[in-house]
Amino acid sequence: MLMLLLVAPLTPSAAQTNNDMALNSSVAQTVNGILSYSRWPPGEVTSNTLRLCIIPPVKYAAQLTPDGSAFSGRSLNVMTYPFDSPMLATQCDAIYSGYTTPEQQADLHQRLDGHAVLTIGEQDDACALLNAFCLVITAQHTGFKLNLDTLSRSRVRVNPAVLQLAREKE
């Protein structure tokens, strides 16, 4: 009797790994572009370093690093905090989040009220409450949706050319 044993690889295929790296790079370029065209109110960013906080779980944040390779204008300090951290309202100039429930979004939205914090979400298709920028990630393209109400309440100003890009994608 002949037996055939099929073994699935335990590691991702090279093609999948390359695709993940390309997506991570595309997301990093988009996020860094948004940050570089954003301006915080005077006195809100107290150093020449912009503080980007990541709230896990995230899928595409691997290349959001402090080396500033795709970021121009100022250094970037990247930190990871849990969703319930009180540091999010006081130690972050921008927040990049992965999946959050509507209840978590409402809670964080309330905690950020009055703070100049730019919010970017990678898994927020509705773009309805918390995030000013909601990434739209496909294998071919990384773009974003924009929640103007959330952006205006954040008091962070974004170059009108970036806002026009969001309008063109709708």
Summarize the structure.
It is built from 5 helices and 8 strands; from the N terminus they run αβββαβαβββαβα.
Q: Which oligomerization state do the chains in this entry correspond to? A: single chain
The biggest beta sheet is recorded as:
6 strands, mixed
Question: What letter string, H or E per element, gives the SSE order?
Answer: HEEEHEHEEEHEH
Given the structure, what is the number of helices? Answer: 5
What does the radius of gyration come to? 18 Å
Q: What level of helicity do the residues show? A: 25-40%
Strand content: 15-25%
Structure description:
The strands form two sheets. This protein has a six-stranded mixed beta sheet, with helices on both faces. The model is unreliable at 1-15 (pLDDT under 50). It has five helices and eight strands; from the N terminus they run H-E-E-E-H-E-H-E-E-E-H-E-H. The chain is an alpha/beta fold.
